[in-house]
Amino acid sequence: MARGFFISFEGGEGVGKTTQIKRLADFLRDAGHDVVETREPGGSPGAEAVRHVLLSGAAEALGAKLEAILFAAARSDHVETVIRPAVEAGKIVLTDRFMDSSRVYQGVTGGLAPDFMTALERTTVNGMVPDLTFMLDIEPEEGLRRAAARRAEGEAADRFEKEQVAIHRKRREAFLEIARNEPDRCIVVDASADAEAIAAEIRSRVMDALPGGAKTTPRKAPAK
Ligand code: TYD
Fold first, then answer.
1. Model's pTM, two decimal places?
2. For residue 220, is pLDDT > 50?
3. Residue 217 included in any domain
4. Which atom of ligand 1 is nearest to the CA of 54?
């Protein structure tokens, strides 16, 4: 069976990755593809156990380096038990976050040494670099507004929130820099557009990139 295809979705918090993965998965399944939806940290039983340690905050006090190694341990398990077997079986794998999240959150805003991060990435990814990465991009202020709107209304930005904006801006820049450095893999998508417009752009980019995809799967919308 022919090798499948591996797509990652990256970006800051609340940019709509989950919604877009769901839409793309539905589209690809309708077109007859075998699709695996997964996420990080997690995606495999071993990695989901580590996810709990990471997201509960239990690892935070132990330092950025230990956290980065835990993210890497989770990723290694996810790659070897879920992603690689699926891609080798000819499936299309869609993951909510992958190696670029570690580069950005641990490497850039976590302040870890580039050499350390590169070595960690090489061993954990172990050749399983995504064929395509969608960077969902939004103004940090807009992202925070969306996130805030979901929580409480009418709350003024305090010092903590301003600090958060600066961190979000740094992360956004870091994702965009990865995309500039790896234009063959990364596609930046304007995440402030409406969800259907974003989904249409993603569908079209995936159909262009899938080996034989445009031939075997008719486009739903006519080309402009
Ligand atoms: P999650 O609850 O899955 O939310 P979302 O992906 O929608 O933001 O949280 C995952 C968090 O883990 C998120 O804040 C980013 C962070 N993260 C890292 O710091 N490094 C990583 O390598 C990964 C995969 C995630």
1. 0.91
2. no
3. no
4. 12
